[in-house]
Amino acid sequence: MPNRRPRDLLPLVAPVHVLILGVIVLPSVYVLWLSLTASSFGKAPVFVWLDNYARILADPAFRSALWNTIVIVVAAVHVELLLGLLLALLFASGLPLRRLLLVCTLAPYAVSEVVAVVAWRYLFDPDAGPVTQALHALGLPVLDWSFEPLHAMMLIALLTIWLHLPFTFVILYAARLAIPAELYEAAKIDGARPFQAFRRVTLPLLGPAIVVALLFRYIFAFRIFSEVWLLTGGGPARTTEVVAVYLYREAFSYNAFGTAAATAWIMVLASLVLALGYVALLRRQVDVDAH
Amino acid sequence: MTDTTPRGLTRRRFVASTLGSAAALSAVPAWAQAKTLNILSHAVHERVLGKDDGDLLRDWKAANGVELVFTTFDSNPLQDRLFREASLPVTDFAVGYIIDNRPTSAIAALFEPLGPLNAVAPIEDFADIAPGLIQGLTVDGNLIGIPVRHATGGLFYNEALLEEAGIAAPPTTLEELIEQAKKLTFTAKDGTPVTGMIMASDLAVFPVSFARAFGGDYITKDFKLLPKPEAMVKALAALNDMFTAGALPRSYATTKNDDQVTWMQQGRAAFTMITFARYAQFNNPEQSRFPGRIKAVQFPKSATYDGPMAAVTEAWGMVIPRNAADKDLAWAYIREVASRRVTLGMARNGNGPVRVSTYAEPAFAAASPVAGEEAKALATARGAFPPFPEAARAQQLFLEDVQLAVLGHKSPEAAVESMVSRITPLRPA
User: Which of A85, A203, B32, B427 is the most buried (most CB within 10 A)?
Assistant: First the structure.
């Protein structure tokens, strides 16, 4: 379609814009407006400016939830990256029964989060869970997750990693397979050892894929809800509560829609701040590619 | 070149067929029954009405040409959806089920006052419905719900495990309960590790019952917070003592209501506190390892307290959203469900009956051996806390401190102090 003016192309892209406007922009604006009001069932919303934001930021339960979220996200996302990278390299190096192992690696992604949490809850039950009993039998320390907040956080992080490792793995594995074999041959001819080939060839070429995987996981992981809600409910005594659970309580337990909406906006901003470094890195890579 | 084949599906034919089919369907006389009544409820409300040959409303539905369509949710999501529907300009749901500790003044205003409807077409023997339950659904002088189910807590015990531990009778005081629970924390003959008592940690009913056993409370009807703080301290100390001794599960902080049922059915716990209506479920031979051996008594009070013990009860009521279309049909349904016959039928299906006369019915006594104990508990029972706008948030703060005290992360005194300082600002002015 040579020489067509942008105005002529507008009808072709308009449905996408209408969709984005309808499902993202307008709801976001509505939530923003709601966050500036005091609103509940049976009451007309009252404009309160930034009171909801001030109230949330002053709430020790929110600060604790935010800290828990950051700890889980940072720990889980980076461990996922490390394991995903190791698995991708292992698969790329050639494995016997590769297809079967690939299915096993990807299987957690096919499991519903609710089912996974229920299964893990049963396996790690502090009184009768098979894993707990096996650890006891082997004389190893058990995860006392319903009593010790730290253990509960560890179990939540482990479950998150298990559930989402396939996502990171698939991105990195696809990127690794896209690296031409000639580059490794050239590196070998130049006398590069395996680790040097990894550092000088694999890692730089996997860079964009790593940043994309990190960025997506940071944003997704920040919304962590079902693992916490179904496993610990944020307990004991709200010590493992995350921001999404805090938001849920505000909206659906306390029916405080203003503070819930403000929490949602704080979540968006916090996840962007957390991922800002990687966004900058991605932008730099795009600029380099463009030139 | 054409983009169609002579006998293939073309876009024009597809559109024409779709429109033709739609027109044909719309021309056919209605297949469904003449009237549909949409109801928002918990699954249990639909289940206790029975189905097929046991459908308690079969004749009423046939006589009125009504089809009932239940949309069911768990308790909290149900209340959320009900209030959301009632806040819309108009709703398809003509009847909803509400918990009696939810309607604040603002929420009650979303529902139709039922007094005038009852004056025109009265419910059969209205005075027979427990007055306390009616009072719980009367807000600002308006009756907004008709009680349909109550859940009053009792102490369930596994008779077989008590016998195995050499205990002849269930406890009659709280001190005995604690002592027996500790004794029943053992490995049963069949190798099952038994924990003395199990209770969910996410509901106020349990610590409130312990506090009432010492003559205390959480929040009274007139919004007095912790009327006897020393009773709450004693209650938390007792719970902490049980947890430390292993008579409460290590997983106490993550225990839910459903866990109570499965643990009792499997013989993993000897005692639990739950609504009397669970009797049938505990003793169902298809689900329980101890059919007929899990029994219930009223929750005991402390030997040190000589006042009356008030069991914790929660009632459900049927409401009509103000924005519902067919209120007459909704009221007709409510009248039928609240009748003596349906109340008795639902009670036999495991529903806590709201009519005093139901407890005197031999058919009910035969179906529920704990009916007598339940009636005695109901006589003095009251809700865990009254409705007020910040009740849910206050309950969360209360439970947070309870959990910390039970697990030993906070002393009972410090927990009570924290409750007072954090919950006081949330109470109504």
Answer: A85
